[in-house]
Amino acid sequence: MKTRNYTLDIAKAIGIILMIIGHCAIILPYRPYRHVIFSFHMPLFFIISGYLYKCKDIKDSLRKDLSSLMLPYLYTCLAIVGICLVKSLFKEDYWDRTIYYIQASFIGSGSSHSCMFLSGLPDIGAIWFFPALYVCKNTYNCLQSYSLKKRLMISSVIFVVATIVGRYLIFIPFSVLSGLSAIIFFAIGDAFKVFNRIKPIHWAIGIACWIVALMFSRLSLVRPMVELYFIDVIGATTASLLVYLLSQKIEKIRVLSKCMIWIGQNTLYILCFHLIDLDVVKVSKSLKHVNSVLALVVMILFPIIATYVFVNLKKWIKERRSISGMHT
Fold this sequence. Notes:
Blueprint: H1 6-22, H2 32-38, H3 41-51, H4 58-88, H5 93-107, H6 129-141, H7 148-169, H8 176-181, H9 183-191, H10 200-216, H11 230-250, H12 254-265, H13 267-281, H14 283-286, H15 292-327
């Protein structure tokens, strides 16, 4: 029986915390660290997803991922719209925001776009990741009949085409092109299950590519946009591997690893609550004028605490239902 890879949970925890810090532009002005974070933090999640990928029947995969990915997207959109509706009773401008987020929910964009067609549409924010991963995972699953080498080659082609189309030509709702662009990282994650020996020369090339990408490029899967294409891919992959090595070190620190593993196992919930805070609750932003460091700490802790409450409440309700079912 295979045991769970807790190092991956810790890596996901590092990724979600870095993502929240990367979104702190509403609190702190631009800093170079945000460019470093954005160079790999989303590829990290797709690489881990690819590593954990298991070949499934196409119909079963589509149906299961609707529940695990698209339902959280739907519930988060409903929460955002619901909070906006309540706030609109007290603040008139929130009615416009309610309309905005209703539109954004049906568009599924994570950011503004600069393409020729369908650019400038309302964006829902960070949960673009849910439909993008749904598209990415199930497109890759359709390639299951090919060898790993061919899957990597096909994914590379899809990555290039989707990135060019998404950046210059048209936006397709529900971040379809972002998901297709990210498929190269999903395929790399899948490949690491077989090719997991990395030689010193590989590290040297990878780190060099990451440095070049940081200096001369910008990677953004949400748009999607890259400047140096496979140099960006190699750089982001190398940075993700460095996070994995760091996670192995953290795993040896008992108390810290326990907290990080829990965060990593609940990253999807944390992402949802982070977006709710970012878009409509704005607890952290309200503290911006008091102390920017405090605001950043709250920005990180709010979705984690909210997730802890939600997970335990969900567990309690499930237990109560089980007890009541035993008495009937």
